[in-house]
Amino acid sequence: MLPAAHLIAFDADDTLWSTQPHFDQVEARLLEIMAHCGEPAHLTEQLNAVQRRNMQLFGYGAKAFMLSMIETAIQLTDGAVTGHDVQQIIDLGKDLLRYPIEPLPGVVEVLTELRRRGHRLMVLTKGDLLDQESKLARSGLGDFFDHVEIVSKKDEATYQRLLSRHAATAETFVMIGNSLKSDIIPVARLGFRAVHVPYHANWIFERVEPEQLAGLDFHTVQDVRGVLAYLP
C-alpha cells in the first residue's frame, strides 16, 4: 500500500470513455468510399502518412483526422475527388464530434470511491479544446473532477509544467491512462507514479516498442477498477 496520493490525474479518451473504436469505424468507412483507389492496406498507408505530416500543424482529434482524410482523398484521386465524397468525409468527421459518450465499465465506481477517500481528481487529456470539453460534458463525469487540463501534447515538458503549477510531488501525484506513449512514459521518466490501464484499441501513433519501456517504473492494472487496490 502506497502513501495517500493527493492529486490523481486521469487520461480521458480510452481511459474514461471509448474513443479509438469510433475513429476505427470512420477509417473503415473512408476505405469503402475510396475503395476504387486501391487496396485497403495502401489506403491506410497513405492516410497514416498524411496524418504523420499534419500532426505538428493540426494537433490531435476529430477535426485533424477529418482534414487528413480529405487530404488523403485528394491525393489518392490526383485532385479528382468528387464533392459528394468530400461531403461524406466531412459528415464522418462531424459524427466523431457528437457521438454519445458513455463511461467505460468501472469508471463511475472508481471515481466515486476516490472522491470518498478524499483525493483530488484531474482530467489530463490532449486534443482539441472544444472537442475534449464537449466529450467531458457529454460523459456526465465533469462533477467528479477538481481540475481539467487539456493540452496539445503530452511530453515531459508539458507534464513538468503542469506538475509544477499544481505543486505536485512524486509522493502526491499519480497519472492513470491507457497510452504508454502519452500517459506513462513521460511521467515515469520524470520520476512520478503512473498506472497503465490497457485498452483493446490503440492508435498506431500511440504504439511503442518494448525497448522504450526499459528501466521505467510504472504499475499496470487489468482494468480501471484495479486502481482502487493500488491507491489507499
From TrEMBL:
<keyword id="KW-0378">Hydrolase</keyword>
<dbReference type="InterPro" id="IPR023214">
    <property type="entry name" value="HAD_sf"/>
</dbReference>
<dbReference type="InterPro" id="IPR036412">
    <property type="entry name" value="HAD-like_sf"/>
</dbReference>
<dbReference type="InterPro" id="IPR051540">
    <property type="entry name" value="S-2-haloacid_dehalogenase"/>
</dbReference>
<dbReference type="InterPro" id="IPR023198">
    <property type="entry name" value="PGP-like_dom2"/>
</dbReference>
<dbReference type="Pfam" id="PF00702">
    <property type="entry name" value="Hydrolase"/>
</dbReference>
<protein>
    <submittedName>
        <fullName>HAD family hydrolase</fullName>
    </submittedName>
</protein>
<dbReference type="GO" id="GO:0016787">
    <property type="term" value="F:hydrolase activity"/>
</dbReference>
